[in-house]
Each structure stands twice: as C-alpha cells, then as structure tokens.
Amino acid sequence: MISIRLSEREYAATRAMYTSFGARNVSDFVRIVVQRAITGSVVSDPAVATVIREFDLRLNLLEQRVSTLAGQNHSDNRTDPRSLT
Question: Which residues contact 26 (CB under 8 A, 6 or more apart)?
C-alpha cells in the first residue's frame, strides 16, 4: 500500500477524470495509471473503457444470478422428497 499527496487542484482534476479511464474511484484510477506506467500500456481510449465497464457490470450481474440460482437449487434439493432417496 502507498500514499500520495496531491494538491487540491490535482485531486479535483483526478476526481473529474477517473471515470473516463474506467476507474470506479480515485484509488482505482491511480492503480490503473501506475499499472500502465509499469507495463508501458498507453491505452486510454474512452470507448474501450466503456466496453470494459459494461462487461464488468454484466459479469457481476451474471455472478449474482448464478449465486441466486445455486441458492435456489440448494434449497430445492432440501425440500424435494426425491433428494432424500
């Protein structure tokens, strides 16, 4: 874990632009920027970030649905008399 200090102007600019990089918050944005600096990646196309965000949201929704269905299946098996044999 690291801490950094930003001026009020730098922090305001960071808050204003973090979503355009596909970040969920300032911390996520800084992590993305550091990762890009380390890997040499300069991809900052907002369209790509939007696609990734949408994919992430859809994946989260899918995970929630699978969990819900798995929970329903688990509770159905407990009450289904066929599962007792």
Answer: 11, 14, 15, 18
Domain residue extents for the chain: 1-43, 45-85
Token readout for 8 is: 């009020």
Element (H, E) at 15: helix 8-17
What span, in angstroms and rounded, lies between the C-alpha atoms of 6 and 67?
41
32-81 residue pLDDT tens: 888 878 877 655 566 776 777 888 899 999 999 999 998 887 666 665 55
Token pair belonging to 82: 């066929």
**Cβ density class 54-66: b for 16+ within 10 Å, e for less:** eeeeeeeeeeeee
pTM higher than 0.85, yes or no? no
